[in-house]
Amino acid sequence: MKFHNVNSIRPFGPTIFECDCPQEVLKKLNFIVESTSNQSPPNLLDRDFEIVFFTQKQVDDSGFTSFIREVISDCLETWNMENAHMQYEPSSFSDLYVDVWANRYFKADWTPPHNHKGVVSGVTILKLPEESDDSDLHNLNFIWNNEHHRPLQEIGKTFMFPSSLLHWVRKTKTDSERRTLSFNLSVFPGGNIQRRT
Question: Which pTM was predicted?
Fold first, then answer.
């Protein structure tokens, strides 16, 4: 399977990649979230809303792993990772992911500014309320040296970025759910992520 619409955006220092997750993969990911009971997760980043952690089998079976393996090579090439001074500890989750989880945002839910330990992180938009206004559709915020980039969010849109890039999500204004998939990848300088088609 080939995935298209991979674009590199450079609103400031680091490059952010945008690409489209296939619809059949989104359906499977959303089904997993909706069929998983609340796991009573830790209150990460002082947030108090539902988080659903995925297993390696779930992300593999959904087709998400094939999608990420296809697009990550372009990202690493653009970021020139072989010359980067970054390290990552080995992952026990899989040979590709450190972790994968879904965030379920409802009215007033938000995520404070933060970054991730590691090299490559990503966010896939799984669900957006129909009543979202322009502010809600731009509530994902990347920050670099006091510059802000608030990309338009669309269902299926996947953003991949250096894990050190500060980002946050503004308060959700709608009553309906906004759902995202977040992930960290266990890639490293000189690492070899093979394309699988």
Answer: 0.85
